[in-house]
Write a structure and sequence with these properties.
Layout (H helix, E strand, L loop, with lengths): L1 E6 L8 E4 L1 H7 L7 H7 L10 E6 L5 H7 L12
Antiparallel strand pairs: 1-2, 1-3
This protein binds zinc ion (ZN).
């Protein structure tokens, strides 16, 4: 599972970007912070809009395919290996 951050609001450009779950956890520190706090910390990389909406994304692939292919690249987005 991973998060998807979308550029929203009247001035939003509609750009959306995946956020790896580990990066999200690092953003949120102890995990006590909420997605709402993460939203307030983010800014659109395209237009600079600060109205960011976060949606939790789930891996909809069948379990055997997930095992075969490993985690989706989206789950590691934003974290250099
Ligand atoms: Zn934008």
């Amino acid at each position: 599972m991973w998060l998807s951050a979308g550029c929203q609001g009247e001035k939003g450009c509609g750009h959306s970007a995946p956020i790896g779950i580990r990066l999200a956890i690092r953003f949120m520190g102890s995990g006590a912070a909420t997605a709402g706090e993460l939203e307030r910390r983010l800014r659109c990389s395209l237009c600079g809009n600060r109205q960011i909406g976060i949606v939790l994304q789930l891996d909809a692939r069948p379990p055997e395919l997930q095992e075969c292919e490993g985690p989706r690249p989206d789950t590691r987005a934003g974290l250099p290996d």
